Amino acid sequence: PRKIPNLTYPALVKCVVVLMSEWCRMSEGASDMDIDRTFLKELHSLKDRLSDSMLVGMVNHGAEAFKNSPEFPKNFVSELRKLAVKLMSIGYSLVHTKDYTDIFIDLDEMILCPWAGAGLSFSHLELGLSTLSGCYVSAVQNTGLSSTVPVFDKYLRCVSNCLLVLANR
């Protein structure tokens, strides 16, 4: 089975609590929680509306200030482009409840390991995630995608919190 190296139980619990508070709702007439299937459908439908090239364009536009800044590694913006595409790829794959079993492993293998392998720090990740949110919101304001902002924001907020917990383990 796939595992996340050095994942502590408290870190896993924090991530699960974040996921449950953001993406779950109480079942009608029951005392347990279910994944919000409407949210899953809306998140998956973004795949048809957001191409990888659109995501890269959003990052290019929103991260312009970082490109020539001596405070940031030269590869920051290119890694931010990859981060945007990979994050959405993970989100698009969350179609069924069973797809959640590997989300933390996917975040570690597809996001955290390549980010660290590119020589970027935890603080760069934090800034990159907040930049993605701003890039998306500003890029879709004048398009027909403005209705997707709440879904994107809900997804990115939860995944960002989990990534920051996993990165700081």
Account of the 3D structure:
There is one protein chain. The protein is built from eight helices and two strands. It is mainly alpha-helical. 24% of the residues are buried.
Task: Provide a concise account of the structure shown.
This protein has 169 residues and is mostly helical. The chain is built from 8 helices and 2 strands.
Shape: globular
Strand content: under 5%
Share of helix, binned: 55-70%
- Can you count the helices? 8
State the end-to-end CA separation. 21 Å
Structural class: mainly alpha
Write down how many β-strands occur, each being a DSSP E stretch of 2 or more residues. Answer: 2
Overall pLDDT: 86
Biggest pleated sheet: 2 strands, antiparallel
Q: Write out the strand line-up for the largest beta sheet, numbering strands in chain order.
A: 1-2
Provide the low-confidence segments as ranges: none
Order of helices and strands: HEEHHHHHHH
Global Rg: 16 Å
